[in-house]
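ok so I'm stuck.
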Amino acid sequence: MHVPLTPVRALYRAVALFEVCQRFGNGEGWKHVSASHVRLVLGLKDEDQERLLAAAEANRMTVNQLEKETAKARAALTARGGRRRLPELTRTVRAIKKCIDAKGRLAGSCHDLTRLDPLLTDEITETLRQMRSACDELLSTLDTSISE
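replied:
not stuck anymore, here's the structure
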């Protein structure tokens, strides 16, 4: 079943991709691993993510090949016990919080922005606008539900 990518889900996925890339050196040295590869390992244990992404790079795996490998790792997760998963909104907000430094700035935002490629600047600008809009909408909904 295909679930449409809502703004909150899209934001969560973008932050999760950012977080994985940041954890593994921002993709330094990845010549064969793309965002599509990284997306496949989301939700797996850190050690599985590292192992699979390293194997994808070393073996020049296609996205389809990595998908088969991640399916094996996910099969092991289906028999999980333990506490219940947090709501998606809570996970999303916590993932965003990890991207904010002690001074309240977005991680990596202190770089010289004048050196960015104009296409990347446009992409970042549009993504930040979408994030702001999604966050404003969510805050409004939360404010309304709290005041009721």
